[in-house]
Predict the structure of SurA N-terminal domain-containing protein.
Amino acid sequence: MIRRRTALSVSAAGLLAAVPLLTGCGSTPHPGAAAVVGKDRITVAQLQSQVEDVREAQRSAPQGRQLLASSARLSQDTLVRLIQYRVIEAAGRDNGVDVTRRELQERREEVEKLLGGSAAVDSRFLAAGIAPDQVDQELSAGLVRAKLEKKLGQARTVDTLMKTSEALRVDVNPRYGTWDPKRGTARPVQEPWLRPAAPAAPEQPA
């Protein structure tokens, strides 16, 4: 699964192969959007809803205090992951790769067997900033990535993901940072006049 929360591959705690970097650029803010990926807008409200799902699960977890303390950049990390899902999905679609419901169910069963049950899976993914109801989306993206590698090979898959990201012209709202085309992630906000978005903050125009 994910080698790091913002890596372009899916897999909490090393369950799936690490995914290479995305390429993209973004500088033009869009009112009400946390990011724009091609024609797809990820709204601030959608992002905050995902973040709150994670926060709620963290607060309910036995190790909740530690999880909350270790996820200060949850909003940004979640946004990066949502962008990456869209790039992987687009690359898969362009190359005739998708995931069936049966395949996703089988993958879920494999991961549960590996980690020791559904509760263990939820706990492991939660430590990576992914709520229980978001796990299937993470696994699905990982399966698309794996299928691309099987069909194209690793090197061509890397190139395909980068070209797809570039074609989609990833545009991140400056309040969440700036898109780093080399690392496939968003750099934290550094300017003193721009504050990083806080989890569950009221929606603000970009």
